[in-house]
Amino acid sequence: MRLDSLGPRTLLLGTVAGWAVLVAILALAGLGGRITPLADDPGSAPRLPTLPKAAPERLGPLAQYSELVARPPFYEARRPQPFYLTNDAEAQAPSFDYVLTSVLITPGFRMAILQPSQGGEGVRIKQGEAASAAPQWTLVDLQPRTAVFEGPEGRRTLELRVFDGTGGQPPSVSGTPPPIAAPVPVPPQTGGNAPPKPAPGNAPATGQVVPVQPAQEPAEQPAMTTEQQMEAIRKRIEARRAQMRQQQGQAVPPPAPPPNPNQ
Questions:
Q1: Less Cβ around it within 10 Å: N or C end of the chain?
Q2: pLDDT in tens, 16-34
Q3: Measured between alpha carbons, how far is 119 from 112 in angstroms, rounded to an integer?
Q4: Are 164 and 107 in contact (CB under 8 A)?
C-alpha cells in the first residue's frame, strides 16, 4: 500500500497508535521508576514577604474636635441648629378626611361612595376592602346611613351626608301643586243670539278701564313629605271629578228655532 493513498484519518490513527506503543515500551524499561523526593532543606524554602510598617492613626481623641460641635461647618451661621426625627411613613400617610355620600346595599354586594371634604372625585370602597386613596382604612361595616372604617387611629364612623341648606345639592322634591281654578257655571241661553247677562256684583261699566293687578308670587312653602304629596294629588283628582260631574249635570239646552214670519 502506498503512503500517498492513505487518507488523513488513517494517518492520524497510525500516529496515535505509534505514540502509545512507544510510551508502553518506555514504561516497561523503567521510565519514572527512579523519581524520589528531596531531603528537607530549610534553606531551599522561599522567604516570606515583609509587611510594610503600619501608618500612624490619623484621627485624634474626641475632645480634639469639640470646636466642630460648637461651630458646625455645614451651616452658614456656624451655629448649631435643632432638628427632629420623624417617622416617614406617618408623615406621608394622608389623613382620612372624607364624607359619606352614597350607600349601595344588595343581597350580594355592599359598597360605599366617599368624597373628600374639600371636594373632588368620589371614591368607591367595597365592604372588607380599602381604597387606593386611603389604603390604611378598611370598610368593616356598612349600614343604610352609616359606614364604619378601621385604620391606624382606630374605628371611625361616617354618617350619610344630607342636604342641610348650607352646601351640596338639595334632594329632588316635587314642588307644591298649582291651585285649581274654581269651575265657572255656564249661563243658559234664552234666545237665538241673546247676549250673555253680566255677572251680578260690582261689574265695571262699558268702556271703563279696569287696572290689572300684577299676579302675586306665592310665598315659599316648606318642602312637602311623601304623605302630603299623595294627599294633595288625591284632592286634585276629587276636585276634577266633581267639576266633570257638574259640567255633565248642567247640559246646555239647544237654541229655540227662529219665529216664522208667515204666521
A1: C
A2: 999 999 999 988 888 777 7
A3: 17
A4: no
Is 148 exposed, middle or buried, given 0-12, 13-18 or 19+ CB atoms closer than 10 A?
middle
Q: Domain total for the chain?
A: 1
Kindly report the pTM of this predicted structure.
0.32
All cell numbers assigned to 24? 508502553
The residue behind cell 523503567 is: 30
- What is d(CA 70, CA 83) in angstroms, rounded to the nearest whole number? 16
- Please report whether residue 111 resides in a domain: yes
Phi, psi torsion values for 150, nearest 5 degrees: -125, 130
**In the numeric block, which cell numbers belong to residue 13?**
490513527
Nine cell digits for residue 147: 359606614
d(CA 140, CA 61): 60
Residues 120-176 pLDDT 10s: 888 899 998 988 888 888 999 999 889 999 988 888 899 988 765 555 454 454 445
H or E element that contains 113: strand 109-116
